[in-house]
Amino acid sequence: MPRPVPADLDALVDAVADLRARVAPLILARQERRAAGATEGERLTTPQHLTLLALADGPLSVSEVAGRTGVAVSTATRMLQSLARAGWVRRAATAADEDRRRRPVELTRAGRRVMDQAGDALRGRIRELLERLDDEGRAAIVGGMEALARALGEDDVPQAAGSIPRQAASSSARSSAVTVGASGESGDAPAGRMPSRMTPR
User: Fold this and answer.
1) Which end of the chain is less congested by CB atoms within 10 angstroms, N or C?
2) Is the CATH code 1.10.10.10 the one for domain 40-171?
3) Does the CA dihedral 72-74-107-64 come out positive or negative?
4) The pLDDT value given to residue 160
C-alpha cells in the first residue's frame, strides 16, 4: 500500500529524496547483474541512446543534435565522435564542394541496429517492472512521470527547439532511460566542431 503523500512541501522534498536514495542503488544493482551478458544496445548510456534517437529520422547537423538532446554543441561533438569510433554514426554524403566540417551526421546501419536493440531492451525492462504492479500502481507511475515532465518544463519547449521527435522515439522504444554502459569518450576537435573524417578506430 503506498505511503500517504506529505502535505507540507518540505516534508515532501524529504520523502522524495529518501525515495531516490532507496531506488538508485536498486537500479544500479540491476544494471550490474545484467552487465555480464549485455548486448551492445544494453550497454548504451542514456546520452548515447538519446543521440542515436535524435538521428533516427535522418541526418542532422551537430548543432541540431545538440538542440534535440539538450546539451551544448561541444558535448554533442564529443558524443558523436565517440559514436563514430564505434561505427554507429558517420558524416552524410554531400556535394564535393561543400564544407566538410558542416556536413550533417547520420546513423549507420549498425547504429540503427544498436538503437533498436537498446529500445527493445528498455521496453523489456519497463514491462518486467510494470507487470509487478496492479492497475493503481501502473496509473501512479504514468501520472508521476507526466507530472515530472511538466515540472521539468518539457511541455513548454517547442518541438523545433530541440526535443527528440516523437517518430524517432517510437522507432526505438518510444522513450529512453538509464542504461548500463561506458560513458561517451571525448574527442580532439575544438568545441563545437567535429572532425571532417569520422571513421571507427
Assistant:
1) N
2) yes
3) positive
4) 41
